[in-house]
Amino acid sequence: MAPSKTAETAAVVLRERLLSVSAGLGQAVRWVRRERFPGLPSDVDEGLPALSLPTASDPDVSIVIPAYGKCATTWACLQSLAQAKTDVPFEVIVVDDASPDRTARVLSSVGGLKLHENPKNLGFIGSCNVGADLAKAKWLCLLNNDTRVTDNWLDELVATFEQHPEAGMVGARLLFPDGRLQEAGGTVFRDGSTSHFGRNRDPARPEFGFVREVDFCSGACLLLPRSLYRELGGFDAHYAPAYCEDVDLAFRVRARGLSVLYQPLCRVVHYEGVTHGRDLDRGVKRYQRINRDKLRARFQETLRASHPAPGRRTAVAADRRLGPGLLVLSPDAASATELSAAPTRFASLPRLRALRKLGWKVAVFARNGLPLDYARGGIETLGPPYVSSKLSPIVGSRAATLDVCWCDDGPFVAILHEVIRVTAGHLKSVVSVGAVGELGEQGLARVASADLIVAPDADNAAALQARAPALNVISATVSDEDLACALRALTERR
Which of the residues 2, 53, 322, 333 could staple to 338 if both were Cys, CB 3.0 to 4.6 A apart? Predict the structure, then answer.
């Protein structure tokens, strides 16, 4: 190899290593600087300040909080409800489950709170159902007392139903107080065991940052129509006093033809283990194992038919509901707002959302990020520092879950086809082109290797097809369904 070529290759290798190191440092810095949340006040602290909750004569949401003891823990939850920003009017119902401490006395002084005292202990499930019977709003939010909510949490939960009409129940992104991810939705395995996706990971990673369908979301924070909860009979006393009732409810919601969705923009801090501890052999916590067996017995046919075997990689199991994978590669842009209309030509947000609803798992690589509407639409956003800026690692690291890559015509196309050839030969490529009259012979040769070419309209598609009959061309004006069929046909030509 000529010295100049050797030097050029060495420079490329060095640059890629530096980019990798830079990305790693960026992730480390984000992790160190991650948001942390305050601890809980002591239950022996008699000096809890006065507290008042917002009131609404016609609330949209009824928030039901069961409580047994741990008075200051419940107070901290209510304090977060009073302080967190939201435009959604709500009411708060605390069901005191015959607490042995001063819970009822302390909470009776909280302004705007509807406090119900059970005459005898009913357990978590019974208390949730009592609270739901007292609710009057359209939406029912079940919230643990060992939680703190954050700004806009309720707005995002409610809006999910507007953006995803197929939703029957929505859960939150749960965080540990030190900022680690506790749960980004849950997976149920064939033996009835469960796994919390992303547990102890960095919550800012892209795989945890978009709305997705899940097997279940933790009952620490759930939102669903109050009418649906009543029709289903609420949490099932079969699992009394607690544990697995949230998983069971998710199965019954799906049996109605509705989806259970995870909403990452609703961030809730969960002080796990405060109420029932962590020992699986003592107290209420022991029902976690007992009720897993009940769950498996009740849904054994469904579990065998459509749930992964235990031990399967959590990420793969969590993705199994999302269908074939589409990666959209955006051009460089000065800011995310320049990508808000379409990260690549003809791949607009409405179109990508439509593909998502038609069964595709859609991810967009955008070096400068994308507006949150992409995450709300169920679209994953990839970019630094969690995803390399180099095309080869982007494609190579996700080859197992990708089927199609889509980009604009330009120098990027040749690079993409070379990357596909070297790292993921099964992938199909889609290239968007401009007016055919502006596509010279060099441009035609560049896009000729694409498995599908998207032209601006029917006239340009016809002109390109006439010019190069061997090409697979489609108009950008076709319906979402026709585009989805064309993409799926590519995956069947492996």
Answer: 333
